[in-house]
Amino acid sequence: MKIAPSILSADFADLATGVAAVEAAGADRLHIDVMDGHFVPNLTFGPDTVRALRPRTSLPLEVHLMADDPDRWIAGFADAGTDILLVHQEATAHLYGTLQTIAAHHVQAGVVLNPGTPLNTLDEVLPLVDQVLIMTVNPGFGGQHFLPAMTAKVAALAKTRTARGLNFAIEVDGGINDQTIGDVTAAGADIAVAGSYIFGGDPAQRLAKLEGRA
Length: 214
Description:
The chain is an alpha/beta fold.
């Protein structure tokens, strides 16, 4: 299981220190939650945050774009140094084209599903994506409790991936801690986002627990 610490739960006044701590502790990538105040009721980072972090870490930077009309943000985040750009199925009427645009900017393309969105809404785009992120909480705020019903959704997606011979990664985001990581791992997830759990204690110890090293 790869672990992607979410900087949404880091100290905003000292992001560089938080990033350095999780990189030294063995994180696989950084997860950057971008919220526009419309698609979700919160406002967070923009391309300048990615641009500022890019020279401070060698970790892949994964941007989770929780924003209406995501196409208008693709070029800015790509130019800032984003490695993986994830857009919500619910945020665009032209998901196929949006994913093509991301790929055209030489960035890995991913799609995100909210808890209430059925898996079959992705049937036509799965061959285009490098990653599918299943939200295991309702998006918008960190520190929420894991929704156990989403484990079956992850398992169903893993089954579809195998049946269709596809190789996208499956990621989960929301309420991930040392108690929930086992369920999503068993269901077939490859990557887990964790924010409040990692930054709410010693990052090295908590990453080790999530990765089964402690």
